[in-house]
């Protein structure tokens, strides 16, 4: 009993600890309450240990150790929740890991315009109010061949705005084979409902003919024909769907616009890399009146919904009340401006847009990088065995579900640690590494390692100690 009392009396005091010079830096740069609470919490832990009557914790009599623990807590409490990770999964547009990474060039432009005042809605030429849509519209039109364009928050918002603006209170004809769910509660029938448009389903899950659309058209009720790209699944076997240009011909006959929700906004031609996704240019050529796609899928930019098409429709959307609800901010517009500017030169785009660069990386380069990763890990650690293996990479982000990309991985195993332990260790390291377990080994796919990731991966692995 007396022991306890004495120990409690000898316990560190908050105010006194806060004066320690090892905390000066933290007090200067972090919220004072965070530093003070961390000290309090560590003292609280010691007090509970004393009261429980168990073996006194070493930090009780070791001030340096105690301060180390305080600092650890401060660091943990002040680490941001949204942070950089290393994607070693080989899935390029990894939805859980932020879909497409944005290029450094684009982010430099963002920081330039977002950290200061900008021309967001200001017309420098005339010294008057301008429109935020103007910054990217002409670049998007140049890259896609469209007449007009606008940008909203994401493709879900784009779908909502397009349908509200073009079909409120009237019918939109869609094939039953295209009533997609994209995940995270984006379902075409629900969005349709929410927009006030009436879904007119035609055909069956596996087959829809042009005659199905024809029969569904009602001169009084029909507002548009819509095609949705089934980006995250494929129906194979006994199937048939109507091509965009056939739909366009039908639409023309009845003076109905054709809307195409394509999801991923592929501008480059990736057939060479065995990615057979429709491109925005294909959609334009087929004559779709309005096309919508995401900014952070195969386009390789920031989260956004991009709507292109006939000027009359786009102008009406810009004035629609929902436009304000789903509008994008200056950061997105700045990043998109850089991305679309890059697309004027496809060769250069493939070098500067991270998603394209990763998707178009050659097998030889991937093999060479996997070998390099293997030898660097071998030099840095004798706790793991590494070999290089061919692997399958994926586009991801609900795009091109059947595209198998040939990749390479550095594959780790160890007689000292279990695979689960290593996976967790890498995931919990200073820069978390998200890897893939297969055949009871850790697979580090090199396709999705960005600049600097290789070095950081090696140093994380080198810390694996017994
Ligand atoms: C991904 C996708 C969407 C949703 O796009 P977000 O940008 O995630 O809102 C909508 N439609 C299709 C066909 C898609 O592939």
Secondary-structure blueprint:
Layout: H1 2-10, H2 14-18, H3 24-29, H4 32-52, H5 63-78, E1 86-87, E2 91-93, H6 104-114, E3 122-123, E4 128-129, H7 134-144, E5 148-152, H8 155-167, E6 171-175, E7 181-183, E8 186-187, H9 188-195, E9 198-202, H10 210-216, E10 222-228, H11 244-253, E11 258-264, H12 280-285, E12 290-294, E13 305-309, H13 311-319, H14 321-325, H15 330-342, H16 346-352, H17 354-359, H18 363-380, E14 385-396, E15 405-413, H19 419-427, E16 433-434, E17 436-438, E18 441-445, H20 453-462
Pyridoxal-5'-phosphate binds next to helix 8 and strand 11.
Q: Main traits of this protein?
A:
43% helix; binds pyridoxal-5'-phosphate; globular; alpha/beta; 20 helices
